[in-house]
Amino acid sequence: MTRKTVRIAMNGVTGRMGYRQHLVRSILALREQGGLDLGDGTVLWPEPVLLGRREHALREIAERHGLDQVSTDVDAVLADPSVDIYFDAQVTSARAEALTKAIAAGKHVYTEKPTATGLDGALALARLAHAKGVKHGVVQDKIFLPGLRKLKRLVDGGFFGRILSVRGEFGYWVFEGDWQPAQRPSWNYRAEDGGGIVLDMFPHWDYVLHELFGRVTSVQVLAATHIPQRWDENGKPYDATADDAAYGVFELEGGAVAQINSSWAVRVHRDELVEFQVDGTEGSAVAGLRGCRVQHRGATPKPVWNPDVPATEVFRDQWQEVPDNAEFDNGFKAQWELFLKHVHADAPYHWDLLAGARGVQLAELGLKSSAEGRRIDVPEISL
Questions:
Q1: In whole angstroms, what is the distance from residue 153 CA to residue 351 CA?
Q2: CA 333 centroid distance within chain
Q3: Best CA proximity match to 171, nearest among 277, 264, 248
Q4: Cα separations (Å) of 247 from 200, 201, 240, 263?
Q5: pTM here?
Q6: Which residues of 299-338 are buried (b: 16+ CB within 10 A; e: fewer)?
Q7: For residue 1, what pLDDT is reported?
Q8: From the CB of residue 85, how many other CB atoms can be counted at a distance below 10 Å?
Q9: Which residues neighbour 298 within 8 Å (Cβ) at sequence distance 6 or greater?
Q10: How far is CA 329 from the centre of its chain?
Q11: pLDDT tens, 40-75?
Q12: How far apart are CA 381 and CA 127, in angstroms?
């Protein structure tokens, strides 16, 4: 076996997602398993270079995990020819500028979403990467999670027949920050800092719908700011200028209709923080991040509406659990592996910056739909 080191500049690892999912559960997990076997006698050894603005926080993380490469100078790291990949998990408002620099420096780029705060910026990144000939990928983690992989298996196997509708429920109560600390950073609730649930979640809904059911062809949204005042990390009140809930209807190529509610102001009464129900002519399924249950046409009961007597049926008991039939690794790690194979072995990969731009487009049109109170067509975009 030949070991090949791949140096990855990781910007934003002091944040929750950048640290937990990308550094610890992906890159360090790959190191713990001995690297990534490319199948040709080569093992990739990821060597992270931790980037950020707070050197003391970077060094604390580095010491905790036995790493020694940290920097607060993004330009110097991008100028280093030994750095192969730039990864970005910063706040949304800082992402496009950093990605532009990385692409211009000839680095392959892998990034969280949204890739920019607007479609023009997202398309500019995709076009620049294409022109520079670098490889590029956007995190689309949910389609790598067990529940949605089971759902994809059902779709590919024709379980549903003709798919009629998709209904999604996502969200949880994010504390306002006065009497209990908020679970999300305060910038999420300031539009001027790139916050808002539409910009945060609609890129997810775009790739989930696109990958499983078909391209979104129209969108109609009502976005709301249910909690107008919140308290920041220092306990100071501030006005919430970004949407914290969005109620969307998406028409899909092929005729199916998706309805997805997204909210940071809802209390959870479901099995997981996000669930999708898919109904088709031959069967239905309910999938979360890990589990998936089905009810086939031949096993569908015959409920009768009668509000005068208590319900005697336990409806959840009438569904069947979909077996794993496989081992499911961490979804973020699974996509990192595919991207690294794409960069170093030219393996196929289509979750690129153009796919990321499509997610930004859906968010932008969703906000426009809400502002104008109308349904808006979603045109196809290209380089």
A1: 19
A2: 13
A3: 264
A4: 14, 12, 18, 8
A5: 0.95
A6: eeeeeeeeeeeeeeeeeeeebeebeeeeeeebbbbbbbbb
A7: 79
A8: 25
A9: none
A10: 16
A11: 999 999 999 999 999 999 999 999 999 999 999 999
A12: 12
Tokens describing residue 164? 């009629």
- pLDDT, one tens digit per residue, over 262-282 is 999 999 999 999 999 999 999
Contact 73, 101 (CB under 8 A): no
Q: What is the pLDDT of residue 28?
A: 98
Residues 6+ apart with CB under 8 A from 243: 191, 196, 197, 198, 223, 224, 225, 367, 370
Beta bridge partners of 223: 246
Virtual torsion, Cα 187, 192, 195, 197, nearest 10 deg: 140
What percentage of the chain carries pLDDT values higher than 90?
96
Q: Is 155 exposed, middle or buried (0-12, 13-18, 19+ CB in 10 A)?
A: middle
What is the number of other CB atoms lying within 10 angstroms of the CB of residue 53? 13
Which helix (H) or strand (E) element contains residue 76? helix 74-79
Amino acid, single-letter form, for residue 107: K
Count Cβ atoms within 10 A of the Cβ of residue 228 and give its class: 0-12 exposed, 13-18 middle, 19 or more buried. Answer: exposed
Fill in the amino acid letter for 242. Answer: A
Residues 6+ apart with CB under 8 A from 75: 101
Give the pLDDT of residue 313: 86
Neighbours of 93 (CB within 10 A): 15
- Segment holding 86, helix H or strand E: strand 83-88
